[in-house]
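Why 3-methyladenine DNA glycosylase? Reviewers of the renewal asked for a concrete example.
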Amino acid sequence: MAGRYAPRPTRTSVRGGHVAIPAARSAPAAPAASVTPRTRTWTPPFPLDLGLVLGPLRRGPADPTFRTAPDGSVWRTSRTPAGPGTLRVAAGGGTVRAEAWGAGAEWLLDRLPALLGAEDDPSAFTPRHRLLAVTERRRPGLRLTRTGLVMESLIPSILEQKVTTDEAYRAWRLLVRRFGEPAPGPDDRLYVVPEPRTWALIPSWEWHRAGVDAKRSDTVMRAVRVARRLEEAAAMEPEQARRRLELVPGIGPWTSAETVQRSNGAPDAVTTGDYHLPSIVGHALAGHRDADDDEMLELLAPYAGQRHRAARLILLSGRIPPRHGPRFTPGDIAAL
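Here is what the prediction returned.
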């Protein structure tokens, strides 16, 4: 399939303009002082499970912006308003220890409690089903993260529209490694997501190589052109934030929910339009797997205000319906 693509020139016409195509930037040699991390220690006043809280931010096992180390610590990168940053978080003995590198280090450390669920309120959730009550009791360390950053969750959510997770994870991995920049800090396997201008200049054949069709790439292009306005949504109430995101053509309820769950820590932003979730909720709460969005919302109605948390607990319960239907088949964008 690689033979279908022309060699990559240094300059080309991209969406109507003769512009240079950005590539991943090499990490400059840095003096020793610049790799010294900023640090913070924080004692959460609640049980904390790093994997449960930060797991939704990981886009597949080879996500170049996220890594779980053998010692249980979590490494992740972000493009903050202050610049790129890398954060390492480790928990033990009731204490969280964090290190951060790069221009965004202080920003990431300031927002560490929110990232780890300090702004979440699980006490607002009242289980109405035994399954959820048992799962909540068994998972006391579950909190909903709030990153305070929109684009880093919005773009991978757009890439996940109407494709398999494997396809979406591959696209995210290839594009971030190709057009992102090496992350600050000691882990040379991590990358920071491209800045909005870089996303906007990715040529069509690079999207094609990553397996991203024109509909999704065009949606990303429209989003990054108004990235500053979309980032403002992180400070809004979740429903207002979703309305702001859905003003961009190509961003609908599925994508806005997946984004604000992470950027805003939205406990009620249940995902509709999902290929699997209605059948999972129907199986767990009603004993059958042929539920649609309407029935899923009806089943989750007792959890109004906390429907996303209820869905997370259902997924964590392990009560998933057996697969009897055909698997979703990856598409061939060359045929589109």
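The CA atoms of residues 146 and 265 lie 4 Å apart. This is the kind of structural detail the renewal will allow us to pursue systematically.
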